[in-house]
Amino acid sequence: MPRxxxxxxxLAVTLMLGSPVLACTGDCNGDGDVxxxxxxxxxxxxxxxxPTARCYAYxxxxxxxxxxxxxxxxxxxxxxxxPAPQTTAFVTATDFETGAFATVDLARREVVLPAAPxxxxxxxxxxxxxxDRVYVVNRFGLEGDAVQARAGDDGYAVEWDCSTGAGTNxxxxxxxxxxxxxxxxxxxxxxxxxxxxxxxxxxGFVRGRIDLSSFAxxxxxxxxxxxxxxxxxxxxxxxxxDRNDLFAPNGNGVVVAIDTDTDAVLGAISLVGENPFSRTxxxxxxxxxxxxxxxxxxxxxIEAIDVVARQSLGFVVxxxxxxxxxxxxxxxxDEIAFAVVSGDDFRNRVIEFSPTTREVKxxxxxxxxxxxxxxxxxxxxxxxxxxxxxxxxxxxFDVRSGAELAESPLxxxxxxxxxxxxx
Length: 423
Hints:
The protein is mainly β and 423 residues long. It has four helices and 30 strands. Helix 1 crosses helix 3 and helix 2 runs antiparallel to helix 3 (68-80).
């Protein structure tokens, strides 16, 4: 490879980091490849001789223009190939008495496998994808306190179902390798280190434990929740709730950093806010998460963590600015983000806001709904888990226009709860 082209590819890889959307920049026709004619089109888009709408696959930051870094990213894809596209939404669905999973075809926006008794899971479950499997974390309740591995090529049949310990209430799973993962436990003092490559016997599933009790509040339980791995460092979110006071926040939230090679605790990051609640979102070298503090009080917001310096950078946007508790969010670009905002009556609305100006732009879903989660596809579609009593289902929006893309909410058979995209 010529030296100049190699440098361009290296720069393209660097510039691509932190962009969660458009995994195959420059793939204008969606065939999984970036060809010479598409590179030429990208140059014309950057020069302004063609409208950006000719190929939105170049516009990674959704600013209606094409820049040099986006062309370089397309060159990288042309040389190195595109990743496998997202094809399926795996959705845990529940009425909190019965749980099941469903799947949706992303290209057609159609339900493929509805939530049914044959696909039963715990009534409080989330899912994560790794390799060619889906891992279902069955939290509190009947059939809970366990993690399942389900094969993606066999109707998502259970390959193994391993206990995390009675009464531990697992919350999340993060993968360091094919044979090493971590499971956070809300009702325990120790983080589990597990082997996801086990067979149905679950022999050797638990390969270690990491004691986090020293970071707990006065009740001795740190309330572990979300997990994220960045550059061989595991970040564990601790809610630090008072079990002697109806699980009220008891001091600022904490994020513990752990070396995934040695399992050594590297330190703890004290958050500005209390009660970290949402998933973590990695963007531009920062981990973002929402802290809700005390529900119905405007005391939290979306907080940023510098993953290199391992320190909080404070609030990106506050609850006061968005008008309620921020229970989930996604960031599309420096100017486009979406959040689930909970009002004093705990009803939700989905709003679009600018992370730069902190201004609310519009409301996509009104305040009569209950929304549990937002997820963003690589093609720029926003999936909303709408649990409204009258018409629960998945709602799909275009992030550029805010237009709803499906004629009606996709009915899964049970109200949607957690969304994971599969390749």
